[in-house]
Design brief:
It contains 8 helices and 6 strands. The chain is of the alpha/beta class and about 190 residues long. It has a single domain, classed as Pyruvate-ferredoxin oxidoreductase, PFOR, domain III (Pyruvate-ferredoxin Oxidoreductase, domain 3).
């Protein structure tokens, strides 16, 4: 298999690193060579977080260069614009339909983006949107939002649903597994 590059972006506290870990372990379970990198930045203070997962028959580096992501997963709408330069021509994007004001906006250092949807539509006319936060709230726990996104992401990867779920069973604590599997299923259904 030719190397596939996936970039996951968002802000601290959204479960990006767990989601990228599950993606990487699912690819490894499928028998592929996998490399993963992550940048936390000011993650603990709501700053940008980026994780990159590369998988294929033979992967030499964990870093995805500018313009080389086959798929980008944005856990927040503004981050989709911030990291636009990473997406390859013809690449796909999955965007969680939620807005979180960046620290620079909430602290008054920058004005809020007022034309966000118009800019997203212009940059990503074929984006797949997922309303992961509302789905997570319907399930009774907004912290499972990342597994809703993982379910949506699974529709855009070559891996069988069973491989994803096997990875989740090995990675998520037993007391949280049922909820997270439901969130995963709802994310798949929402973007099927």
């Amino acid at each position: 298999m030719e190397t596939v590059n996936i970039t996951l972006v968002g802000v601290g506290g959204q479960g990006i690193l767990l989601t990228s870990d599950i993606l990487a372990k699912t690819a490894a379970l499928a028998g592929l060579d996998v490399k993963k990198s992550e940048i936390h930045g000011m993650a603990q203070r709501g700053g940008s977080v980026i994780s990159q997962v590369r998988f294929g028959d033979e992967v030499h580096s964990p870093i995805v260069h500018d313009g080389a992501s086959d798929l980008m997963v944005s856990f927040e709408r503004i981050e989709a614009l911030r990291w636009r330069h990473l997406l390859a021509p013809g690449g796909k994007i999955l965007i969680n339909n939620i807005d979180l004001a960046p620290i620079t906006v909430s602290s008054g250092q920058q004005p809020a983006v007022t034309d966000l949807q118009e800019r997203l539509d212009a940059e990503y006319p074929e984006a797949v949107f997922c309303d992961a936060m509302n789905i997570a709230k319907e399930l009774g726990n907004q912290r499972c939002m990342n597994m809703v996104i993982a379910g949506a992401l699974s529709n855009l990867t070559p891996f069988e649903e069973d491989l994803w779920k096997e990875t989740m069973k090995n990675r998520i604590p037993a007391k949280l597994l049922e909820l997270n599997l439901k969130a995963f299923d709802r994310g798949r259904a929402a973007t099927a």
